[in-house]
Amino acid sequence: MHVVVNAAMSVDGKLASRRREQLAISGPEDFDRVDRVRAAADGVMVGVGTVLADDPHLTLDVTDRRVQRQRHGRPGNPARVVADSTARTPLDARILDDEATTYVLVVESAPEERRTALADAGAEMVVAGDDRVDLAAAFDQLADEGIERLMIEGGGELIFSAFDAGLVDELSVFVGSKIIGGHDAPTLADGEGFVEEYPALTLDDTERLDDGVVLRYTVDG
Ligand SMILES: NC(=O)C1=CN([C@@H]2O[C@H](COP(=O)(O)OP(=O)(O)OC[C@H]3O[C@@H](n4cnc5c(N)ncnc54)[C@H](O)[C@@H]3O)[C@@H](O)[C@H]2O)C=CC1
Ligand SMILES: Nc1nc(O)c(N)c(N[C@@H]2O[C@H](COP(=O)(O)O)[C@@H](O)[C@H]2O)n1
Questions:
Q1: Domains of the chain and any CATH numbers
Q2: Rounded to the nearest whole angstrom, what is the distance from the C-alpha of residue 188 to the centroid of ligand 2?
Q3: Binding-site residues, ligand 2, Cβ < 6 A
Q4: How far is residue 131's CA from residue 165's CA, in Å, rounded to a whole number?
Q5: What is the pTM of this model?
Q6: Cα–ligand 2 centroid distance for 79 (angstroms)
Q7: CB of 17 within 8 A of CB of 24?
Q8: What angle do CA 29, 152, 174 make, to 5 degrees?
């Protein structure tokens, strides 16, 4: 599976404020670009922290011709994927509507009644891991379902884990002209953080959009 991380951060590396509310760091040009990155993917993934904070929909503007071109004739939306160890996704979350298939990744010990409720709400349940979702094992199962290209949008806990597991092939980050600040504001890569060994990136391209810049990297082998 080919994994692309795309997110927007402030100049000081924050994905949102300490209140973790939906915050437009991207402008209209970058949101259009994000739609095209989604359209090129078979699946669009977030962590449950993002579902709880933002209630995202993770679908496409299918009226946009450039989005249609990226779909290469594949109808509809890419699948939606949420890393949700203990099945906390609310049953009225927008990602559970019928506009795309939604995979909820949980661990073995996730409460049975929550798993059943999410399955009844239309989610495809994927079980991988004991404590937190084992991303490598879950991605193998998603690949069996035809997801060959996965876009991860965030948040910082999930992005860190994906890098930590060595699963990321590409990173695009929009740097908006804002300072958000705060020890408790989520950053591009949270989790435990790396020590001694750090993922190496090669900067492939930069593009000025809105009031910011998109940085595109390949993750070195
Ligand atoms: N500016 C941007 O581009 C974006 C910003 N955000 C922001 O990020 C914030 C949410 O980020 P976080 O709190 O870091 O939550 P997150 O969205 O990264 O979800 C983390 C949660 O996912 C679950 N999880 C299951 N398996 C996991 C694994 N292997 N690794 C990591 N997590 C796993 C855990 O319950 C964990 O607490 C929100 O404020 C949201 O607005 C989110 C996406 C994009
Ligand atoms: N790329 C990007 N730029 C921003 O400025 C953002 N605030 C976000 N947030 C993420 O976008 C997703 C919302 O999806 P829908 O529009 O509801 O489909 C979700 O992942 C947010 O956290 N992204």
A1: 2-219 (3.40.430.10)
A2: 13
A3: 7-8, 22-26, 34, 46, 50, 54, 56-59, 153-154
A4: 15
A5: 0.97
A6: 16
A7: no
A8: 35
DSSP output for the chain: -EEEEEEEEETTSBSS-TT------S-HHHHHHHHHHHHT-SEEEEEHHHHHHH-------TT-HHHHHHTTT--SPPEEEEE-TT----TT-GGGSTTS-EEEEE-TTS-HHHHHHHHHTTPEEEE--SSS--HHHHHHHHHHTT--EEEEEE-HHHHHHHHHTT---EEEEEEES-----TTS-BSS-TT---S----EEEEEEEEETTEEEEEEEEP-
Point out the ligand nearest to the CA of residue 34: 2
Give tens-digit pLDDT for 4-34. 999 999 999 999 999 998 899 999 999 999 9
**Alpha carbon of residue 124 to chain centroid:** 17
pLDDT digits (tens, 9 = 90+) for 120-161: 999 999 999 999 999 999 999 999 999 999 999 999 999 999
- Taking the C-alpha atoms of residue 29 and residue 27, their distance in angstroms, rounded to an integer, is 6
Write down the ipTM of this complex. 0.98
Q: Is 161 in the pocket of ligand 1 (CB under 6 A)?
A: yes
126 CB within 6 A, ligand 1: no
Q: Look up residue 74 and give its amino acid.
A: R
Q: Find the 159 Cα to ligand 1 centroid distance in Å.
A: 7
Phi, psi angle pair for 58, to nearest 5°: 60, 40
